[in-house]
Amino acid sequence: MVKIEFFEVDHVFILKTPRFNWILSQSSDIKHNLAHSYCLPKSISDVQRQAGSSETGTDVLSPVLSKALDYGPMKGSEALRSNISHLYSSESSSPLSIEKIVTTPGASLANFIVLYALLGPGDHVIVQYPTYQQLYAVPASIGTDVSLWKTSQSEDWKLDLDELEKLIRPNTKMIIINNPQNPTGAIIFKQTLERIVQTARKHSITVFSDEVYRPLFHSVSPTDSEYPPSILSMGYDNTIATSSLSKAYSLAGLRVIDLCVNVRSYALITASQIDEYLASFVLGPPVRQLIEGNRILTKENLNIVQSFIDKNTSFCEWTRPEGGPIGFIRFVRSGRPVDDVVLCTQLLEKRGILLVPGRKCFGDGINFSGYIRLGFGGDTDELIAGLEALQSFLDNDYMDVPLSPCA
After folding, report:
1. Domain ranges of the chain
2. Which residues does the UniProt record annotate as the domain Aminotransferase class I/classII large (predicted)?
3. Hey, which end of the chain has fewer CB within 10 Å, N or C?
4. What is the pLDDT of residue 29?
């Protein structure tokens, strides 16, 4: 039997306190969900209005209502793959063929397919860290040796390229990166991406980039020379990128991935043709307005969180995120990290605030003691209400939170 680590970000409070269901915000105990990692969800009607379309919801769906729901193309809808191709080809000197594009219902499945199909016992991978647990737990579960390419807040979560060279072994098969990064919101800028590709090319290593939050870069302009391009535009054939409509595009309900260049036959025969049709619509003309609207929203909300942190510098600190709708905040008392698991548990019990504990969900031990991941891509008024509840906790209950046992 394959053994895989418990996926903490989805289950930590199921184990800790059974009546709480971590991440699933249907619980009546949750008043302020600041644990989400997506932008404000939108309906198809919302997308149409934002794009200035006069079509009604019925008009948008009418072409698929009369379609026979057979298995459909094995690689996914040609219309959807064509729109994805246009998105990625626009920033590359060579067009991205739709034959290199495969769709799946969700980036998590795409990631799993890539990792499961390309890695195995005897291989070695290097994984940017901290990151989404799936990216290092799945390779480890199939017998691949995993080296964590660690970053720290003291270095603004920047990657050390000299360290990358030291981590490479004769059997290194893949470098795995996440841009923008979950949970810190850090960006790998263009020059660093170019260096990573140069190193990979020299050693014939595949670069796999989870770009689920791309292109939600709220702190860097597309006209900036260091604006991060997709890994697919770097001129290196051995690259794989995955993305999704669930994060930057505000459509978690569709769960359709942008890009995956590997086969999916063993895990998935076909994706929902209705989902793929709607995804194709979203990635057509509405896409620019949708992304720009979310950039504006996350930038405004980021400033609100920054004001909260500036007001509470004796209790919390962070490296300001540059991309994505998430940030990694470190809570301290007298300069020492508090127990982030206890902090998140008490916030949920006493104020109904849902947050993600860093030590539990992104790394055991001292590495992320005191850290919590906070999502700021949702409704602005709800974010303000959640931060007000958090401020009340800091003013009245924070001193009762114990220090981290790993500090």
Report:
1. 8-43+290-397, 54-286
2. 69-389
3. N
4. 74
Which residues are CB-contacts of 305 (< 8 A; sequence separation ≥ 6)? 327, 374, 376, 383, 387
For the whole model, what pTM was predicted? Answer: 0.86
The Cα 11–Cα 150 span in angstroms is 24
Q: Measuring CA to CA, how many Å separate 328 from each of 26, 182, 237? A: 24, 9, 33
pLDDT of residue 259: 40
Nearest to 321 by CA among 309, 313, 337: 309
> What is the spatial distance between Cα 293 and Cα 287, in angstroms, rounded to a whole number?
10
DSSP-derived pairing of the beta strands 172-178 and 239-242? unpaired
Residue 210 contacts residue 132 (beta carbons within 8 Å): yes
Task: Give the residue among 363, 325, 401 at the shortest CA–CA distance from 36.
Answer: 325
Q: How far apart are CA 101 and CA 246, in angstroms?
A: 18
* Nearest to 341, CA basis, from 2, 9, 88: 9
d(CA 132, CA 215): 18
Tell whether the model's pLDDT for residue 191 goes beyond 50.
yes
Is the confidence at residue 255, as pLDDT, over 60? Answer: no
DSSP H stretches of helix in 246-320: 273-282, 287-311
- Does this chain's domain 8-43+290-397 share its CATH topology with 54-286? no
395 versus 222: the higher-pLDDT residue is 395
pLDDT digits (tens, 9 = 90+) for 288-322: 778 888 899 999 999 999 999 999 999 999 999 99
The CATH number given to 54-286 is 3.40.640.10
Question: Contact 33/373 with Cβ under 8 angstroms?
Answer: no
State the Cα angle at 134 between 129 and 137, rounded to 5°.
80
Could you name the CATH architecture of 8-43+290-397? Alpha-Beta Complex (3.90)
pLDDT tens for each residue of 91-109: 776 788 888 888 877 788 8
Q: Give dist(CA 221, CA 203) in Å, integer.
A: 32
CA 254 to chain centre: 16
